[in-house]
Write a structure and sequence with these properties.
The complex is a heterotrimer.
Chain A lengths: L5 H9 L2 H7 L1 H18 L1 H4 L37 H37 L1 H15 L3 H12 L3 H28 L2 H8 L4 H37 L11 H9 L7 H34 L1
Helix pairs in contact in A: 3-5, 3-12, 5-6, 5-8, 5-10, 6-8, 7-8, 8-10, 9-10, 10-11, 10-12, 11-12
Chain B lengths: L1 H31 L5 H4 L7 H11 L5 H13 L13 H36 L4 H14 L3 H15 L22 H7 L3 H38 L2 H8 L4 H38 L5 H11 L2 H29 L8
Helix pairs in contact in B: 1-13, 5-9, 5-11, 5-13, 6-9, 7-9, 7-11, 8-9, 9-11, 10-11, 11-12, 11-13, 12-13
Chain C lengths: L3 E12 L2 E13 L4 E5 L6 H9 L7 E9 L2 E2 L5 H7 L4 E4 L13 H11 L5 H14 L5 H5 L8 H14 L4 E5 L7 H16 L4 E6 L2 H7 L2 E6 L2 E7 H6 L4 H8 L50 E5 L2 E4 L3 H4 L23 E10 L13 E11 L4 E5 L6 H9 L6 E6 L2 E2 L4 H11 E4 L3 H4 L6 H5 L12 H14 L16 H13 L5 E5 L7 H18 L2 E6 L2 H7 L2 E6 L2 E7 H6 L4 H9 L2
Parallel strand pairs in C: 3-8, 3-9, 6-7, 7-8, 15-20, 15-21, 18-19, 19-20
Antiparallel strand pairs in C: 1-2, 1-4, 4-5, 9-10, 10-12, 11-12, 13-14, 13-16, 16-17, 21-22
Helix pairs in contact in C: 3-4, 4-6, 6-7, 7-21, 16-17
Classes of the chains: A mainly alpha, B mainly alpha, C alpha/beta.
Chain lengths: ~300, ~350, ~600
């Protein structure tokens, strides 16, 4: 009995969703931060002032330029081995973003595929997949990723694999319940009656309806992947020691926080900013899609 | 009524048993993937090939994997989780010593999370439609972006290093000892009548528990807010207003009671995650709990401890879920059958 | 002096960047002990009247003129606190959706207790006594037992009775009932209306009955006000208004309503549909003018007041239009369809059965198996429309899903055009798609909102072997849109960009794409307003005449079935209890259930 007329909804539907999304402040801010980070990751060798592993023991544990303990040439100070913090932060974006993107795509593909099967077919398929999710959810994610890394060994590929194997349940659970809702829409039955195969129905009718949710979840998952990678590198179970990662920087700096708190604060800020950007993006996208759905 | 609930609880436990078995298979199989040879780690460097082969047989590694699993499971069921490679002590004892600390920490974390999250959610809801909502909203997104291990470091920097207000290492000052009765420190302090130690223990617990809680708070806040927003549009809320029920009562009696149900069921999952969060928080606060034990074991590739700790973590999560489910069933009349 | 009087009330909001009068100059009076009906299609503003009186207008809606006098005080000028104080006490409400209008986590007793406490009744025991008496007064058996129950343990009818008991508990001066029976089944609906009549008769309470159903209102109310696009177009005594409607809109409303008795005449359907909120701003004059069959030049700009044309009868009309008689008298009688009785049935269903054994709920409790369809046998001749009538849960929708292969039957055989298509969908898909198609109930849900209409209606060509080219599909789409009376430019639109009635046409067009012999239509007009419903019903009749198509028409609405179908089957609890030629069954029902259904029609 909504008095809102069809005329009002028409204009909303005809506007391209991407343009609407960009008008949201959250998407704009989150997206801009991510673009900057992406630039840092790609252009790291060009913009970083030093090699991230170059040691200068005479200039160890220096503060950033605005502190008393600053050393000329090291804009954001150095760590206990005299390595340049700024350069290590810049190189750190490489690991963070690489893991974020690969892991999010992986979890999305794996989780969504299983969710589609479970939600669409129901019955035994759904039962099996749901029990697998239950099994996985019996572990706290951190514990499971640690076990997996112990099993696989360290290295960036294994970290990504571990995140995918841990977090697919997040996707699977949420997307499955969305698919269950979509499945009840008559247009899915109508497609079957038009002679669509199950696969075609899933890809043409069900998946596009779940796409907004999937995109939103992916954005959030990237943030989670950044955190998990940081946790693993914090306990020394992520990338090889020669690759600079934010979690490693935190672990190193923790032992010297009385001498140089900034060495700890800066990588923390880097992680929080990155995750915040992904969350803002995801949040903004969700709001845009929700608004569209409400209009319908 | 209570008979029905008991039945449901028993059925839940019955479901949890095969799940726990699968968990043990998962743990066992994954840790067999390990690239390092567990035999090579536990023999002296000068051991001969014959020695290694003998040990391999002794450890049962020549048997098929399912057979190995069966032996392992048999030992577990007898309370034998093996011996730590690094410490040489039974894993069961090690876990028994560290688990109470973790449980205490997690319980306090969960209490803090509830105490902050639920009022926070109501506050968020009350601000709906006002300009300040946007500010609080972005604030909660920021909070969502900070996982508990960064909160842990952050709280240390602020309350420990910068202002030196609260301790952030261990469970008690180094010069203080409490004789062990139950293993639960707070309980033991009270049992031995040592009030100073009790207060100290609380002070030591504040920061790590708060760090754990802050990782969960924004999720609880947001969920309660959105549940309230859903519920406020329901017919029974409108109908209550149309009966002249005052707005305060409409929110507190009619809306909140219904909105708490989905929040409660999510909190089960979240408290499971929170329990996992103790892992890093304990490492950062040098807190002698299960998480610290496990991370130490991971660094040493101390397989028996990793296996044992992983199983205990899973058991804890299943228990938390069970408890939350039972509470949910008890408070939700919708699940009672039509008579 | 009336108990409640709305005097020239105007409610304004902003839509599409313009000020819009959602209600315009609404005047309405309810006396003590009087039952007044407000009738209108969805979006006419009738619910807004209820919200206005409750003081719960949606955000950004505000009364901008007129007064609402209740017991000689203007509600609009009353302090909010005092106004809230009237609710539930002096002014009570009966809601549209009884099942969801009781708080699911509180027992019925707790909700009664809260209400009676608010009404000032002291003492828990005394409140319990009153609650028991109230439940008894609405003829609910075992009231003491009911007080301990939760809403999900009650049926819709029981919930509504309990809510009515609550409404009458405070002996209010006025009750506002907004579509109180719409969510209920036909028989329950009739009983609840009887109950409202009975309670109201015994009290001094004035009752404002808001409904979309003119016939229902006429059957129970003393006076009726008809609303269109935010205006009252006509008010008068119920019998006079229904028997001799004066305003062109009222006349067409009567003419668009298929009756349950009397000769079956072709429905006179209004063109188009009522404008949405933002469209109101473009109608400075008579808001009905664009659809009015007897409009003249001045109608678009001139507003006429509600004038008294006979004692108690008010019409908003400049005079010209109410003189011109159109409608009922000019409606042509429908010619009976001649069926070739010797021909083999196009659809033959024999002993169809389906039981749902849906495992356990999430608590692991075993659910009882549900026998949804039990030994249903049915034949449909070529060109025949058969009505399948039943209440919700009778299994009629399951029959549809079984026929289409969306569920696989446990027993029985389905034969279409001599081909057995009983097996699971995968194996029989090819035959089914060409032979039998379905029109779904809710076009909103049946049309993928992400696809354009041209693509939607030719969906089945997408998987045709050999594949259809895009020009071929466009050609077919144009053809289908033409057959269903849709303008050609809808081809490139999305479903949300067309009106509800047009969406239902798109839905029908898609079902026609494979040129099936049999259509199964599941409640396809139940969500539509009367004027749009008439358009769709007439379209179906035209299709039958043109294409000689057969249809199983599933509905709960007996008058619609009578209008459309040659034969009817009555379904109850999974079984067909009676079937036969429509007129025969309606004139002389044999089964008790059929009798009850027919007796319940307003």
């Amino acid at each position: 009995m909504s008095p809102v007329s069809a005329v009002g909804t028409a204009s909303v539907a005809s506007e391209h969703p991407l343009r609407r999304a960009l008008r949201s402040g959250r998407v704009a801010v989150g997206g801009s931060i991510l673009l900057v980070l992406l630039f840092c990751a790609v252009a790291a060798p060009l913009i970083a002032p030093y090699d991230p592993n170059e040691q200068d023991l005479l200039n160890a544990l220096k503060g950033p330029f605005w502190t008393d303990t600053a050393a000329p040439g090291f804009l954001l100070g150095t760590d206990n081995l005299g390595r340049d913090t700024l350069s290590r932060l810049i190189y750190g974006t490489r690991v963070a973003l690489f893991v974020a993107v690969c892991a999010a795509v992986g979890t999305m593909l794996f989780g969504t595929a299983l969710a589609l099967l479970a939600g669409y077919f129901g019955g035994v398929v759904d039962w099996l997949i749901s029990r697998a999710v239950d099994l996985w959810m019996s572990f706290p994610p951190v514990v499971l990723s640690l076990i997996l890394i112990v099993g696989f060994g360290v290295g960036i590929g294994n970290v990504i694999l571990a995140i995918i194997l841990v977090d697919w349940t997040r996707f699977c659970r949420v997307v499955r319940s969305e698919v269950l809702v979509i499945r009840r829409q008559n247009y899915v039955d109508a497609a079957r009656l038009s002679g669509f195969s199950h696969l075609r129905t899933m890809l043409r009718e069900v998946l596009p309806a779940a796409a907004p949710l999937i995109i939103t979840l992916m954005s959030l998952e990237m943030g989670i992947a950044v955190i998990v990678e940081a946790i693993l590198s914090f306990v020394g179970m992520s990338v090889e020691a020669s690759i600079p990662a934010w979690g490693v920087m935190i672990a190193d700096a923790r032992n010297y926080m009385y001498q140089s708190a900034w060495g700890l604060i800066l990588p923390i800020l880097a992680i929080v900013t990155t995750v915040l950007a992904f969350n803002l993006l995801g949040d903004g996208l969700r709001r845009t899609f929700d608004a569209r759905l409400q209009q319908h | 009524m209570s008979g029905e609930i008991l039945g449901i609880v028993l059925r839940r436990i019955a479901v949890a048993i095969p799940l726990m078995l699968l968990v043990s298979i998962l743990v066992f199989v994954v840790l067999r993937l390990i690239p390092a040879d567990p035999v090579a780690m536990s023999v002296p460097p000068n051991a001969t090939n014959e020695d290694i082969e003998a040990l391999r047989r002794e450890m049962g590694l020549h048997l098929p994997i399912m057979h190995q699993y069966a032996i392992w499971l048999g030992h577990i069921l007898q309370g034998d989780l093996g011996k730590s490679i690094a410490f040489g002590q039974p894993v069961f004892t090690l876990i028994g010593q560290s688990l109470p600390a973790t449980i205490e920490l997690a319980v306090f974390g969960a209490l803090f999370a509830t105490a902050i999250g639920l009022p926070g959610g109501i506050l968020l809801f009350r601000l709906r439609g006002r300009p300040s909502e946007q500010v609080v909203d972005v604030g909660s997104t920021l909070m969502m972006s900070i996982p508990e291990f960064l909160w842990a470091l952050f709280l240390i920097l602020v309350f420990g290093v910068a202002f030196n207000l609260l301790p952030f290492a261990g469970r008690l000052p180094p010069d203080m000892t409490i004789s062990k009765v139950t293993g639960f420190l707070l309980l033991d302090c009270l049992l031995t009548g040592n009030l100073t130690a009790f207060l100290e223990a609380i002070r030591h617990m504040l920061l790590p528990a708060l760090a754990l809680a802050l990782g969960t708070v924004p999720l609880i806040m947001r969920l309660l807010r959105s549940s309230l927003l859903d519920v406020i549009g329901e017919d029974y809320v409108t109908m209550a207003r149309l009966r002249g029920v005052p707005e305060r009562r409409v929110i507190n009696r009619h809306a909140l009671r219904n909105a708490l149900l989905p929040t409660l069921s999510l909190m089960g999952v979240q408290f499971g995650f929170l329990f996992g969060g103790t892992l890093l928080v304990e490492v950062i606060y040098s807190y002698p709990g299960l998480g610290n034990l496990m991370v130490e074991a991971v660094r040493n590739t101390d397989l028996p401890i990793i296996q044992g700790a992983a199983l205990v973590f899973a058991l804890a999560v299943l228990t938390i879920n069970l408890v939350v489910d039972v509470v949910y069933i008890v408070v939700n009349p919708k699940l009672r059958r039509a008579r | 002096m009336s108990l409640l009087a709305l005097n020239d009330v105007t409610v304004t909001t902003e839509a599409g960047g313009r000020q819009v009068d959602v209600l315009r100059d609404v005047s309405l009076a309810v006396g003590r002990g009087e039952l007044v009906g407000v009738v209108g299609e969805s979006g006419a503003g009738k619910s807004m009247v209820g919200r206005l009186i409750a003081g719960m207008l949606p955000k950004s809606f505000a009364a901008s003129g007129g007064s609402v006098t209740f017991r000689d005080r203007d509600l609009l000028a009353m302090p909010p606190r005092e106004r809230t104080g009237l609710l539930g006490d002096a002014i009570a409400f009966v809601p549209q959706h009884p099942m969801t209008s009781l708080n699911p986590v509180l027992s019925l007793g707790a909700q009664f207790d809260e209400h009676l406490k608010r009404l000032g009744q002291d003492g828990k025991a005394a409140r319990r006594e009153r609650a028991l008496a109230a439940l008894d007064s609405v003829h609910l058996p075992r009231p003491a037992d009911l007080l301990g129950r939760f809403p999900h343990q009650l049926s819709g009818g029981q919930c509504q009775r309990a809510l009515i008991a609550m409404a009458f508990a405070g002996k209010p001066d006025l009750i506002i009932a907004d579509e109180p029976t719409t969510a209920l089944d036909v028989i329950t609906q009739a009983r609840v209306m009887e109950l409202i009549d009975e309670l109201q008769r015994d009290s001094e309470t004035g009752l404002l009955f808001i409904t979309h159903d003119l016939r229902l209102a006429a059957g129970h109310c003393q006076r009726i006000a008809v609303m269109y696009a935010g205006e009252i177009v006509e008010t008068g005594p119920a019998a006079a208004l229904l028997g001799d409607p004066l305003h062109p809109y009222t006349r067409s409303l009567v003419a668009a309503n298929p009756g349950i008795d009397g000769p079956v005449r072709r429905l006179a359907a209004l063109p188009d549909h009522m404008p949405g909120l933002s469209g109101f701003a473009d109608l400075p004059g008579c808001r009905f003018a664009p659809r009015c069959p007897v409009r003249d030049e001045v109608c678009a700009t001139a507003r006429s007041p509600l004038t008294e044309v006979a004692p108690g009868r008010f019409v908003r009309s400049g005079g010209a239009c109410r003189q011109v008689k159109t409608g009922a008298t000019e409606q042509a009688a429908l010619t009976a369809v001649t069926l070739d009785s010797a021909a083999d049935p196009i659809l033959s269903v024999d002993g169809l059965g389906k039981t749902f054994r849906s495992g356990r709920d999430w608590l692991g409790r075993r659910r009882a198996p549900v026998v949804a369809v039990d030994g249903v046998s049915l034949d449909i001749a070529p060109g025949e429309f058969v009505g399948l009538v039943g209440e919700s849960g009778s299994g009629k929708s399951t029959v549809a899903r079984l026929l289409l292969g969306l569920e696989t039957p446990d027993d029985g055989r389905i034969v279409v055009d001599g081909q057995d298509i009983t097996g699971p969908f995968q194996r029989t898909a090819k035959q089914r798609i060409a032979l039998i198609q379905m029109i779904f109930q809710d076009p909103q849900s049946a049309l993928n909102p992400r696809q354009r209409i041209g693509r939607l209606v030719t969906q089945s060509m997408e998987v045709r072997r050999p594949p259809a080219s895009w020009p071929e599909r466009l050609e077919r789409a144009r053809d289908l849109l033409g057959q269903t009376g849709l303008p050609e430019d809808t081809i490139g639109r999305y479903p949300v960009q067309v009106s509800g009635g047009q969406r239902q046409r798109v839905n029908i067009a898609r079902a026609l794409c494979t040129a099936p012999r049999v259509l199964v239509a599941d409640e396809i007009v139940s969500g539509l307003d009367v004027s749009v419903q008439a358009q769709i019903l007439n379209l179906l009749l035209d299709m039958r005449a043109r294409m000689h198509i057969s249809m199983l028409f599933i509905s709960h609405d007996l008058s619609v079935v009578r209008y459309l179908c040659n034969r009817v089957a009555i379904m109850n609890r999974g079984r067909i209890v009676e079937q036969g030629p429509t007129e025969e069954v309606f004139r002389a029902p044999q089964h008790d259930y059929t009798k009850a259904l027919l007796a319940a029609v307003p």
